[in-house]
């Protein structure tokens, strides 16, 4: 009897009841203890204090769904993660100290990750070998086929050639202070620096250092300048180096006179450049401009000539600016368009007509869709994009143009609303704000993108179209290091005829390396996916109207059989989902077919706006009645 009692006690002690996140589990002591030095071995040996629920089960405040997979591994020594994230499961396995499981999950993770990246990975620049302990990359900027990479106390310049690839060209001396801003000019005009046709500048606090880079890679220090107030923006306009501060200071270095000049203006809240013009948005609601190429000075005091261009009707602070110059090939003359955002969340578009140069820009459109200050704005050829301070809330509009100029018919129409969520870095380990701007990046006559880094300490970036927020691609560090800086830049193509610039995403990392990603290929792949999806949607729409699969295929490849017209006679085009591009192509197919078969006297296009379809209404010799 005594032996039976001891046996029952032993068996009941071998069964362990657990309450994990409110869900009950029962297992044996042997199952939990077979991995040495784990959380469970410490828990059951008394090295970790236990908390029990009302039934006496040991309470563990963790995710029960993940624990179920871990417990199954402890029972069977097999891994079946099913739909659970490998990263989340690895995090839990590390918490419980299940070393064999962690190793298996690391292997699973490595199978999905290549040290050579995916098809978008384009190159890797290791940390500079000349200086030890480079630290993380703080800022990356680019100009033509050059990039400048700023570390904490020095800057490195790289140049790319088709034959040799990326090569390190210049490394600055180590500075005594931390770099906050960097600017690069890889194409100095008119030989103003002699043989030194490249310039790079860095700023920290109130100080600015400017170097000229020789063809052999040596750098000559042009000078050290002071803005007397903290520098918050540093950039080149042509050959002139510009520094600005929100306090109302503008510093200009003239490449011709080699002279640095500080200028007091109204407190600055935004800026943009257009050609040789520096456009300033100020706290008093005014927009000013300076022609830095001419470097005009007032005769009485030798100050910069700062001219007021426009004043906001409500005199709200101009917190974001974007200037769009119409293409030189158009007949619009000096037509200039400016979009700006204010501290109250208002977005306005003003235009300067060639015939109203003397009277200044005219207010064109106003949008009151933001309830927080506008932080970024972009007016491009096809879109108007604004971002406000409410977690990077983005609003976009389509822009209608006629001969390159913005048009009122039908005017700018709302397109999308989305957010580019990005958590702020609080400890400084995620880089500096100047190196992690979300964008939008890209030429104004091309598709522009936002770069999203959701959390500061991450090895992932998301590339999203600025026009609609759709994800183009996701890039992930090839070596697992955190991303501390990023930038999108177009590099010129080869000298071969027909070669076009290619767009790259440059990511700087915590170990000092630079990784490059081919965004041109990413955009092409994303475009093919969209076209494939639209083709499937078009086929479904055609089939729903009674068109056969064969006829749908004929439409897509450019052929159209005449019986198809009778099949589509009763289709209500306002209820279909044809894209404008498809509809226009369909119209052209109809015209081509009819012109081959009929003697055409005269052709007239009649736009059916409701259906978005350009149906040709043809006047045919011989009294032919056109289809409806």
Structure description:
This protein has 628 residues and is an alpha+beta fold. The protein has 4 domains: 13-112, Potassium Channel Kv1.1, Chain A; 119-139 and 436-528, no CATH class; 265-419, Methylamine Dehydrogenase, Chain H, CATH 2.130.10.10; 545-620, no CATH class. The protein is 19% helix and 36% strand. It has 10 helices and 38 strands. The chain has a 4-stranded antiparallel β-sheet with strand order 4-36-35-34. Strands 5-6-7-8 form a 4-stranded antiparallel β-sheet, with no helix packed on it. The chain is globular, with a radius of gyration of 32 Å.
Question: Can you tag this structure with a few keywords?
Answer:
phosphoprotein, Potassium Channel Kv1.1, Chain A, disordered C terminus, 4 domains, four-stranded antiparallel β-sheet, BTB/POZ domain-containing protein KCTD3, membrane, 10 helices, 38 strands, 628 residues, Methylamine Dehydrogenase, Chain H, alpha+beta, disordered N terminus, globular
């Amino acid at each position: 009897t005594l032996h039976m009692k001891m046996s029952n006690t032993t068996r009941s002690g071998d069964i362990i009841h657990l309450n994990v996140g409110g869900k009950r589990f029962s297992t044996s002591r042997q199952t939990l203890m077979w991995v040495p030095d784990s959380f469970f071995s410490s828990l059951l040996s008394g090295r970790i204090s236990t908390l029990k629920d009302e039934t006496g089960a040991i309470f563990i405040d963790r995710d029960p769904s993940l624990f179920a997979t871990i417990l199954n591994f402890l029972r069977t020594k097999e891994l079946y993660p099913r739909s659970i994230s490998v990263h989340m499961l690895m995090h839990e396995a590390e918490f419980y100290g299940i070393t064999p499981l962690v190793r298996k999950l690391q292997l699973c993770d490595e199978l999905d990750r290549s040290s050579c990246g995916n098809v978008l990975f384009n190159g890797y620049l290791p940390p500079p070998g000349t200086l030890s302990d480079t630290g993380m990359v703080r800022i990356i900027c680019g100009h033509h086929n050059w990039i400048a990479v700023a570390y904490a106390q020095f800057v490195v310049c790289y140049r790319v050639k088709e034959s040799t690839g990326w090569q390190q060209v210049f490394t600055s001396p180590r500075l005594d202070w931390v770099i906050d801003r960097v600017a690069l000019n890889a194409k100095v005009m008119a030989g103003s620096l002699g043989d030194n046709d490249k310039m790079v500048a860095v700023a920290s606090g109130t100080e600015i250092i400017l170097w000229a880079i020789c063809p052999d890679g040596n750098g000559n220090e042009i000078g050290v300048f002071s803005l007397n107030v903290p520098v918050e923006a540093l950039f080149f306009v042509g050959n002139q180096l510009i520094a600005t501060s929100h306090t109302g200071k503008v510093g200009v270095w003239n490449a011709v006179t080699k002279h640095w000049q500080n200028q007091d203006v109204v407190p600055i809240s935004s800026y943009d450049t257009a050609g040789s013009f520096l456009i300033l948005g100020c706290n008093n609601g005014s927009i000013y401009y300076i022609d830095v190429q001419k470097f005009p000075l007032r005769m009485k005091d030798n100050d910069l000539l700062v001219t007021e261009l426009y004043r906001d009707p409500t005199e709200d602070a101009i917190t974001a600016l974007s200037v769009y110059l119409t293409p030189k090939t158009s007949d619009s003359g000096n037509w200039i368009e400016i979009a700006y955002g204010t501290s109250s969340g208002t977005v306005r578009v003003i235009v300067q007509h060639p015939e109203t140069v003397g009277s200044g820009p005219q207010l064109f459109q106003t949008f009151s869709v933001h309830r927080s200050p506008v932080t970024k704005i972009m007016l491009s050829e096809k879109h108007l994009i604004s971002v406000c301070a409410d977690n990077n809330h983005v609003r976009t509009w389509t822009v209608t143009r006629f001969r390159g100029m913005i048009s009122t018919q039908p005017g700018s129409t709302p397109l999308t609303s989305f957010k580019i969520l990005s958590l702020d870095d609080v400890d400084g380990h995620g880089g500096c704000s100047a190196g992690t701007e979300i964008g939008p990046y890209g030429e104004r006559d091309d598709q522009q993108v936002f770069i999203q880094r959701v959390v500061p300490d991450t090895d992932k970036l998301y590339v999203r179209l600025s026009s609609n927020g759709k994800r183009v691609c996701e890039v992930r560090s090839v070596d697992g290091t955190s991303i501390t800086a990023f930038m999108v830049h177009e590099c010129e193509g080869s000298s071969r005829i027909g070669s076009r610039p290619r767009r790259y995403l440059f990511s700087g990392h915590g170990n000092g390396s630079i990784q490059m990603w081919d965004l041109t290929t990413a955009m092409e792949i994303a475009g093919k996916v969209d076209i494939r999806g639209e083709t499937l949607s078009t086929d479904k729409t055609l089939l729903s109207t009674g068109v056969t699969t064969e006829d749908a295929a004929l439409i897509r490849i450019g052929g159209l059989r005449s019986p198809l017209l009778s099949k589509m006679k009763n289709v209500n085009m306002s209820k279909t989902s044809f894209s404008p591009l498809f509809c226009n192509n369909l119209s052209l197919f109809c015209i081509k077919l009819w012109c081959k078969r009929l003697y055409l006297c005269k052709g007239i296009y009649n736009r059916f706006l409701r259906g978005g379809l350009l149906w040709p209404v043809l006047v045919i010799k011989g009294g032919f009645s056109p289809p409806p």
